[in-house]
Request: fold
Amino acid sequence: MRVVYLRRALAFQAAGAGGDVLRGPDGRHGHVAAHRARRGARTHVFQLRDDVTFHSGRPFGPDDVVFVLDHLTKDTTSTQVKSVAQQVTSAERTGDHEVTVGFGKAVGNVWDMFGMMVLIDRESVAELASGREIIGTGPFTVNSYKPGSSISLKRNRHYWKPGRPYLDGIEIAIAAQLSSAVASLRSGQTHLALDLSPLDAAGIRDRPGFRLVQSDAHDLTYYIGANVEVPPLDKVGVRQAVAWAIDRERILAQALGGIGRPSSLPWSPGTAAWDPDRAAAYTLNPEKAKRLLRQSGAADATVDLYYSNTLATNAAIAQIVQANLEDVGLTCRLQPKQDAEYQKMFVSGKIPGLFVNGHGFGQLTPSTLVKGAWPFNARQNASNFRDPEYGRLADEIWTGKGDALTTAYRDLNQLFLEQQFVIDLINSTHTYAIQASLKGLAWTMYDGIDLDHAYLA
Reply:
């Protein structure tokens, strides 16, 4: 089987090829055979499967879980579930196939950390970052790896799921251009294309011999971020005016090929914080936008709009947003940047204006978004938005229960809608463009493909 990725997905695939995760409180997935919580959910005891081995042949066991948890808690380790990892107070082997993990306090998104926790091999971790050795416990082993070019995988004959995977191997090509990925799929050279823009993916939908598969995780929301330290975006009325000025339906149709739904909130449907009425709070209303701009003293203001010119979808959204803002009297200057430069500005919080981007985490436990996702992190975020009430609500949904949690979700949604430091536009989803001969494709809620049961008909 042959897969094509865009270049920006290389790091993710290199990690995913070699690892697996500790996931599932019911023990049905991953390496957990059984689990129980003690002392108010501050202590978690895991019974591990006894039939899992690393690709090197070494048995997987409790010491490996302890190692990974210790690795996550180090200050030098970067992870968007760092807030959860920092609550780990102890992790120890308590049996041949048992590990006990203690937390300083019970937090609601502990399973998001375990679900994202790649079980890397402690004996080869030094070689993992360079790609010289990629060893995990997954269904495929790395046969060869050419950085920036290709990855060759072969079937793991000792995988812990009997008879899986079906495929003998996978050849992954890293495409520098979107057009190359589309051409490779259409020519029949590729069975699966990942990270196509929604518009290009939608173009595959009605072609004979191909299928467009949409993940039900709804894990990608396109948004406009606003640096609240940069005038006139330091005025909440201006940010609200931008939200009322945007034609979300046009963005959905023209930039996303109809894949998704307009939304003014970051959550995916089905999560505890989802509120369909409030998700529809902002619609196209140019007159209201103009009124807010006048009231804010910004009727003839100028704003800069930044985006990565590597991402065709973001560029298309930026052009529509520019036209919408011009319609309400804001002069909008487009500022396309090379992806490396854009990402550097983004993670440092130094984008001096508006910016187009996409965020995930809306499909996870709500506290994971406000505690870890960089656009929303209540302690520090890309918009430089800081507010004591926001911090309080983030902590409340992290540790709260029952009615208090329901109230906190309601208040948090109201804060998002009022402050608009993140102006959510479209809740979309990851798409997989495939040849019709590929069967059994699956995926995780963390945006990873699952080829355990995949085969070519």
